[in-house]
């Protein structure tokens, strides 16, 4: 008889355990808040682009450091040289864009920096002042050596802890009739009555993180077969245009835009432009537009900051071969 209470208590414990296990588990699933911007007959994205903040893992949720006041913008494209060099495109310090020389004198050499590839954060590397072995700036362009020897298509370097934001990008068909007509009309407005429309690239992304995408169109045409020829003539052009929502309308804003009107072919050493990527380089949450430019015996990078309807060139580093 003394064992009966123990059996009763054991049964009650098992009953309570079963009831607890039967309770439903509540799971909160965040809803997507962004809707992609659709122009005319453009096909909607198959996914909803959600901004992602890509920050080097030096800051923690419990101990987030104050934003840094300065960072250089280091750049490498393609295979490295024997010093594993990065070009200094410029820098940013407390609201001011710096040129490459000003960024060079502010750099913390032999200290870890954050390294980014086209698809996000890679890790850390250490730049060093290579002028003692590689000589002074080459054609006025500043480079630094590094300990990162891997070959990557596109690399950027920043001060350790610099907040770098990127967002999804989508390539659209350059054969789109909507954008073919848009480029034709814009070239008409620039004085080309019968332009040959050649679009090489259309990309859409959300620069401001407001749920509305901007669309970027790269187009160029040169009558001379060699695209790197120094000659230009009437009808030649190389442009990158941005389609952006303003109120209830869509406007076209030129970023890089060279249109030629001379009747006879003459030396012009034209630049041909290509979109490289979009990154927030100054920690304000708005992506900058990074272009690559090539010409006869020269190449380099141009960066634009977009503020509302204003397009501002903040970096221009075109060096000779």
Q: How would you describe this protein?
A:
The protein is mainly beta and 321 residues long. The chain folds into 2 domains: 68-163; 169-320, no CATH class. 13% of the residues lie in helices and 42% in strands. The protein is built from 4 helices and 21 strands. Strands 2, 3, 4, 5, 6, 7, 8 and 9 form an 8-stranded antiparallel beta sheet that branches. A 5-stranded antiparallel beta sheet has the order 11-12-13-15-16, covered by helices on one side. It has a 4-stranded antiparallel beta sheet with strand order 18-19-20-21, with no helix packed on it. It is globular, with a radius of gyration of 27 Å. Mean pLDDT is 82; it is low at 1-62.
What is the overall shape?
globular
Mean pLDDT: 82
Q: How many β-strand stretches?
A: 21
Biggest sheet, in brief?
8 strands, antiparallel
The radius of gyration is 27 Å
Q: Percent helix among the residues?
A: 10-25%
The amount of beta strand, in percent, is 35-45%
Structure classification: mainly beta
Number of domains: 2
Order of helices and strands: HEEEEHEEEHEEEEHEEEEEEEEEE
Question: What ranges have pLDDT less than 50 throughout 5 or more consecutive residues?
Answer: 1-62
Q: With helices defined by DSSP (H or I, 4 residues minimum), what is the helix count?
A: 4
């Amino acid at each position: 008889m003394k064992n009966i209470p123990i059996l009763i208590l054991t049964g009650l414990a098992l009953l309570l355990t079963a009831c607890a296990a039967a309770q439903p588990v509540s799971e909160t699933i965040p809803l997507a808040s962004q809707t992609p911007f659709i122009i005319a007959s453009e096909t909607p994205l198959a996914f909803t682009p959600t901004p992602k903040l890509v920050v080097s893992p030096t800051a923690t949720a419990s101990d987030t450091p104050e934003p840094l006041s300065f960072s250089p913008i280091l750049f490498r494209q393609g295979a490295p040289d024997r010093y594993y060099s990065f070009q200094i495109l410029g820098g940013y310090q407390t609201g001011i864009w710096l040129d490459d020389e000003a960024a060079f004198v502010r750099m913390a050499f032999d200290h870890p920096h954050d390294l980014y590839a086209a698809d996000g954060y890679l890790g850390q590397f250490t730049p060093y002042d290579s002028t003692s072995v590689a000589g002074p700036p080459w054609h006025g362009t500043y480079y630094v050596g590094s300990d990162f020897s891997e070959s990557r298509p596109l690399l950027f370097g920043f001060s350790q802890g610099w907040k770098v934001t990127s967002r999804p990008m989508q390539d659209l068909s350059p054969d789109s009739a909507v954008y073919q007509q848009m480029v034709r009309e814009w070239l008409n407005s620039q004085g080309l009555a019968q332009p040959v429309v050649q679009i090489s690239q259309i990309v859409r992304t959300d620069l401001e993180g407001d749920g509305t995408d901007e669309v970027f169109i790269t187009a160029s045409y040169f009558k001379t077969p060699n695209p790197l020829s120094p000659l230009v003539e009437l009808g030649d052009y190389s442009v990158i245009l941005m389609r952006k929502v303003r109120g209830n309308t869509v406007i076209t804003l030129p970023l890089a835009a060279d249109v030629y009107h001379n009747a006879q072919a003459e030396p012009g050493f034209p630049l041909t432009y290509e979109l490289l990527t979009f990154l927030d380089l100054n920690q304000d949450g708005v992506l900058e537009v990074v272009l690559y430019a090539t010409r006869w015996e020269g190449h380099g990078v141009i960066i634009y900051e977009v503020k509302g309807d204003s397009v501002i060139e903040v970096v221009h580093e075109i060096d000779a071969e």
